Amino acid sequence: MAGTTQSTAAAAAATATPTGTRKRIFSGIQPSGHLTLGNYLGAMRRWVEEDQHRADALFCVVDMHALTVEHDPARVRRLTRQTATLLLAAGLDPRRCAVFVQSHVAEHARLSYLMECTASDGEMRRMIQYKEKVAREEARGRSVRLSLLTYPALMAADILAYGTDEVPVGDDQAQHMELTRDLAVRFNQRYGPVFTVPRAVHPQVAARVMDLRDPTSKMGKSNDDTGGIVYLLDEADVIRKKVMRAVTDSGGTGEVGYDREAQPGVANLLDVLAACTGGRPQVLAEEYTSYGALKKDTAEAVVEMLRPLRERHAELCADPAYVDEVLRAGAERARGLARPRVDAAYAAVGLMPPV
Ligand code: AQP
Q1: What is the CB < 6 Å shell around ligand 1?
Q2: Which atom of ligand 1 has the smallest separation from the CA of 222?
Q3: What angle do CA 251, 257, 263 make, to 5 degrees?
Q4: pTM, whole model, 2 decimals?
Q5: Which label site among 120, 164, 191, 202 has the fewest CB atoms less than 10 Å from its CB?
Q6: Backbone φ and ψ of 59, nearest 5°
């Protein structure tokens, strides 16, 4: 332990429970593509329906993460605005939570460097998402950016800067969350108790929505083949077409059953239908005797669930000044919350405060 009296005192102030007994929640979403049904069911819906009501919540468009692979600057800028607009359209209420853009709050990058100094090269290289994305970048004939390797350090900084208790995310982020917890514990052991150790919370149903054309892979917004991905802004007919063409039966049984191993495509549709209707996938499986009927009902449930979001998105696009103001106020609040903790972390590791 190397915590000085000064840094420990600053850290204690910074780690005090933010608003009495209210939990602090942080989560983020990358503007690396158009948002998908996976993003909505795995993360956003819970932010809207539960998290913003029960906690002191911050939701962030993590634009710097979108630079970890080859990108078009104009597209990232456009998608950042679109992502923020979709978060509001989905129902995040700026009177209840902060909605902001990562690069507008310098504390994320400041803390990310300290996280790189806390993590080891080996643990970064073990990340499954890193290995998958390296393979994808290489298959596209692109070089692999160093930031792809250090991405989890920035993600840890995003979370730890706010004294976050809970991080609502899809299943695919479980490994990064474990690393974030390890980094928080390690930092605190080395330098004093600066960070709260956060925990991940995953939705009960549809924690990992799979690609409709390849149900063994996650529905990802940056996948090359878009035929199996439902985007939140897809027209109703496009959604219907994609769901009706979903892969259902690789084993050839022809029966509707909820078995993720044997029938991943059917299980995925049942998960999506359950998430949209509030049912249970195992129970829903018993109600269907044909894939066609299951697909039709799933398509309609998705279309209906997304209809209000699409309508609200169109309204918000007509009022960009409102979205700007939400993001400005959100960033201001986030800066005020993050700065004392990041300053405490800088002091704790031995960096001299500005004179
Ligand atoms: N398919 C999914 N099912 C459930 N949850 C998902 N999430 C993403 N995809 C699914 C959750 O959405 C939140 C934001 O995700 P992200 O922006 O960090 O990552 P991404 O959508 O996976 O985008 P990438 O990494 O740019 O590219 P792809 O998609 O190609 O891997 C997170 O809470 C995530 O769990």
Answers
A1: 29-30, 32, 38-39, 42-43, 169-170, 172-173, 207-209, 218-223
A2: 30
A3: 35
A4: 0.92
A5: 120
A6: -125, 135
- Please count the other Cβ atoms lying within 10 Å of the Cβ belonging to residue 212: 25
Using the Cα atoms of residue 123, residue 125, residue 131 and residue 133 in order, give the sign of their dihedral: positive
Residue nearest to ligand 1 atom 31, measured at CA: 220
Mutational pocket test of ligand 1: of 25, 26, 30, 39, the residue with most ligand atoms within 8 Å of the beta carbon: 39
254-273 in b/e form (b: 16+ CB < 10 A) is eebebebeebbbbbbbbbbb
Sheet holding 166-168, edge to edge: 97-101, 56-61, 24-29, 166-168, 199-201
Per domain, the residue ranges of the chain are 3-207+320-348
pLDDT at 206: 82
Active site residue 131: no
Rg (CA), the chain: 21
CATH number 3.40.50.720 given to 3-207+320-348:
no
Q: Is 23 a catalytic residue?
A: no
C-alpha span between 107 and 157 (Å, rounded):
8
pLDDT number for residue 209: 96
Q: What is the pLDDT of residues 315-328, one digit of tens each?
A: 999 999 999 999 99
133 is catalytic: yes
Angle between helices 174-191 and 146-160 (to 10 degrees): 70
Residues recorded for the chain? 355
